[in-house]
Amino acid sequence: MKRISLFILVLFVIAGLSGTVEAKLTKIGTATINKAPGGPQGVEGMMMGMPAGDNAAKEYSLIYEDDQGLVWLDYTNSRTSWFSQVEWAAGLNTQGALTLKLDPGVSVAWEGEWRLPKTVDSGRTFGYDGTTAAGFNITTSELGYLFYKSLGNQGYYDANGDQGTGWYPDSPWGLKNKGPFANLEVGNYWSGTDYSLLKTHAWAFSTAFGEQSCTSFKGSYPYMGVAVRSAKVVINAAP
């Protein structure tokens, strides 16, 4: 027993000397949405990019998902068309749109720009075991991986195609685990990936059921948006 305890202690010491801390989902700082990045009016009468009903800018968490090498902006943009959501996310890259404040000890090497989450595009084969492009338990998309793997949620159907029991708010499936997210909502989110076999449609993900689909028409379906950016993050351990 003493040997086991000593071994665990040594592991903690080595981890402390390494100078970094690893975690699946980690808040690494905040972002303030300072102004509208441009684009049309949102469905709630506010400019895209500004939180609805807010007269002053607020800080939203930056959450690092190390499995995918992504930083998520913990802010849900109001329901609108695919075109408006793509424009909103791209607008976050304009000068002055965001003010980032990293936590002490955090360093970030940004890759690419703020955008909507990506989905692996292929023919619309539907299934339950996570091996198809559409359906349930799919983790090849960025939102699907976040929902199922990093947050540990369950879909309405399991991998065998068996239907879940119960209904909101008592069901075991759906967006039950939000982890460090405060503003991830139950409902449909647009992906930034359009459906190559039918360009008028785009991929989307439902956090209510855990379903990935490509049956949504870009111009009319009012889905939510969340922004993400690829990055390499190092979190230095406290001295």
Name its key features.
alpha+beta; disordered N terminus; single chain; 5-stranded mixed sheet
Sheet with the most strands, sense and barrel status: 6 strands, antiparallel
The overall pLDDT, averaged over residues, is 84
Number of domains: 1
Oligomer: single chain
Can you write the helix and strand succession as a string? HEEEHEEEEHEEEE
**Apparent shape:** globular
| C-alpha termini separation | 30 Å
Unreliable spans are: 1-22, 37-55
> What is the tally of helical segments?
3
Share of β-strand residues? 25-35%
User: Number of DSSP strands?
Assistant: 11
Amount of helix: 10-25%
Nearest-angstrom radius of gyration? 19 Å
Strand order of the largest sheet: 4-1-2-3-11-5
Structural class: alpha+beta
Describe the structure.
The structure is a single chain. This protein is an alpha+beta fold. It has one domain (17-235). Helices cover 15% and strands 33% of the residues. It has 3 helices and 11 strands. The strands form 2 sheets. It has a 6-stranded antiparallel β-sheet with strand order 4-1-2-3-11-5, with helices on one face. Strands 6-7-10-9-8 form a 5-stranded mixed β-sheet. Strand 9 (201-206) and strand 10 (211-217) form a beta hairpin. The protein starts with a helix and ends with a strand. Mean pLDDT is 84; it is low at 1-22 and 37-55.
List the helices and strands and how they pair.
Elements: H1 2-18, E1 25-33, E2 59-65, E3 70-80, H2 82-91, E4 98-102, E5 106-115, E6 126-127, E7 134-136, H3 142-150, E8 188-194, E9 201-206, E10 211-217, E11 223-235
